[in-house]
Amino acid sequence: MIVKNEEETLERCLSSVQGCVDEIIIIDTGSKDRTKEIARQFTDRIYDFEWIDDFSAARNFAFQKAKKEYILWLDADDILLPGDADKFLALKQSLPWQTDAVSMVYNLAFDEFGHVTVSLRRNRLVKRERGFRWIGVVHEYLEVFGAIEYADVCVTHDRKHTQTSRNLHLYEKKEKEGKKFSSRDLYYYANELFDHQQWARSLRKYEQFLELKDGWIEDIINACGRAADCLHKLGNLTEAKAKALLAFAYQLPRAENCCRLGYYHMEESDYVSAAYWYQMAASLEKPLHPQALLQHACWTWLPHIQLSVCYNKLGQNERANHHNEIAATFIPQDSRILSNRAFFQGLGIVSSASTT
């Protein structure tokens, strides 16, 4: 782990893995709080690393300190829930000897009921002797290859810090220094601008990224969608729809962009077109091992609750009720589901859960 001023989260993180790992290595990049004191409760393998505005340099330094056969990496905001800790221990006992890396699910966000709303996969466990390296000064990634195992172990991200401008300032600093950005740099620079609601600047970076045409396909698809959102925020709805459609030129439709298109058409009160895109989203099968960010709502309840709205606007309340009940199979206690159900019951439409 690399850490800095993590007194709020570090004990929780290390407690969750203490019985799962054989050594704990902490690289501190300049903490001014109780981070090191907390770390000493779990390990004496604590090292200082002078921060040089380069996350990969710090992570590679951490990997150099590892002595065991495999390396697991985490951030201080991450934990292994008890069930996942048990799965991890089982994985250690059954891991094929030839495995070079293990991909694990990374759960990033949750709804009020504790259901996962956003997730992706990360290569979390890697064979030390392969010498895999971290690349990128910001939003670094671990470059791995060889025999990859896909595990059902989940790492849970439970962020306690508020949104900061640290990464954005690093990109802006590198840009002022004349650094030539890779495609990946441009993509994540655009994401930072997007998260700070700088729509016009974000759009320009997404466009620069897409023009290079050598980015990772999942980043390209997501960039099309986020560029569309920038255009929507800037009031260019027609261009926003065109940008979302561009994603379909690269791969088959994804539910996230179908839902975007449905939403854009709803804003124009074009409920026939909106229903078309939400129906398409509802018909798609969720990827088994998604490598990119997955917005679970778009693959489950969201298209159906939006179809309920669309069909109500079109005067087809039986169909509207039908889709509200499908949405209810995913989020049964959601206030929108209950409100819609009461509305349809007021129209004399009897609700019955659907399995179609």
Query: Mean pLDDT, nearest integer?
Result: 94
Number of helices: 15
Q: What is the strand content?
A: 5-15%
Q: Which shape, going by the Cα principal axes?
A: globular
Work out the count of structural domains. Answer: 2
Q: Give the total of beta strands.
A: 11
Major β-sheet, in short?
Answer: 6 strands, mixed
Which structural class do the helices and strands define? alpha/beta
Domain Glycosyltransferase 2-like: 1-94
Organism: Paenibacillus oryzisoli
Protein name: Glycosyl transferase
GO molecular function: transferase activity
Description:
InterPro entries: Glyco_trans_2-like (IPR001173), Nucleotide-diphossugar_trans (IPR029044), TPR-like_helical_dom_sf (IPR011990). This is Glycosyl transferase. This protein is α/β, with parallel strands linked by helices. The chain has 2 domains: 2-157, Spore Coat Polysaccharide Biosynthesis Protein SpsA, Chain A (Alpha-Beta Complex), CATH 3.90.550.10; 166-346, Alpha Horseshoe (Serine Threonine Protein Phosphatase 5, Tetratricopeptide repeat), CATH 1.25.40.10. It has 15 helices and 11 strands. The strands form 3 sheets. Strands 4, 5, 6, 7, 10 and 11 form a 6-stranded mixed sheet that branches. A 3-stranded parallel sheet has the order 1-2-3. The model has no long low-confidence stretch (mean pLDDT 94).
